[in-house]
Structure formats: structure tokens, C-alpha cells
Amino acid sequence: MAVKIRLARHGAKKRPYYRVVVADGRMPRDGRYIEEVGRYNPLTNPKTIDINLEKVDEWVAKGAQPTNAVSHLIDIARNGQPVVEKKTKISKKAAAKAAAAAEAAAEAEAEAESDAE
Q: 69, 4 in Cβ contact below 8 A?
């Protein structure tokens, strides 16, 4: 029996929430599992990673293999490093609007200075 430590997805559509579970490799992703060893919520800021490292170590000692995603989460939980957030790109329209707003604010400030003199 190949035992894996993996993520089981829960939560609503477009609102993921994961449980870190120990499961038989033949079971479906969200199906029956042996034990829940943690939780992961990617939607909070910063991302919430709550993993019981003692249970994970016990299962790894018994031969369970963590998936790539779970091993990355375990490394973060062990080191206590915050997850690096990706920078969000703004659209060209939003960038143009922001530039126009900054330009208008600069003009208004220059006009206020000339009125003060």
C-alpha cells in the first residue's frame, strides 16, 4: 500500500481550502483518508499553513511519501518563513488611469502653489 501525504481540496468554487491528509495513493483526491495532519488556506494574507510536524514525521518514518506541494509547505512550516507573495500585474487600462490621476494631482498641486504666490 503506497501511503501519500497530500492535499485534499475543500471549500467553494474559486475559494480553495486544503486539508493536508495521509491517504492511500489509490484513493481519490478528496476521498477517504487515514488521518488529517494539517490545513492550508491560500486565500488569507499571509497564507495560513497549520501542519502538525510531529505527525508528519511519524508518517514519513512509517514510509509515507509527501507530494511536492506538501513537502514545500512542510519546509515553510519548519523554517517559519512567510510565503513570498507574487506581485499582481495591473492591466494597461488601470495603469493608464493611475498615470492620469497622478498627472492630474501634480497639475492641481502646481496650480495651488501658483495661486498661493
A: no
Pairwise CA distance, residues 41 & 7, whole Å: 11
Q: Cell digits for 92? A: 494597461
How are beta strands 35-41 and 15-24 bridged, if at all?
A: antiparallel
**If you count them, how many residues does the chain have?**
117
29 touches 93 (CB < 8 A): no
- pTM listed for this prediction: 0.66
Q: Convert the pLDDT of each residue in 57-102 to its tens digit.
A: 999 999 999 999 999 999 999 988 665 566 778 888 989 999 999 9
Residue 108 has phi, psi (to 5 degrees) of -65, -40
Whether the upstream peptide bond of residue 46 has omega within 30° of 0, thus cis, is yes
Decide if 111 contacts 86 (C-beta within 8 A): no
CA–CA separation, 117 and 106 (whole Å): 17
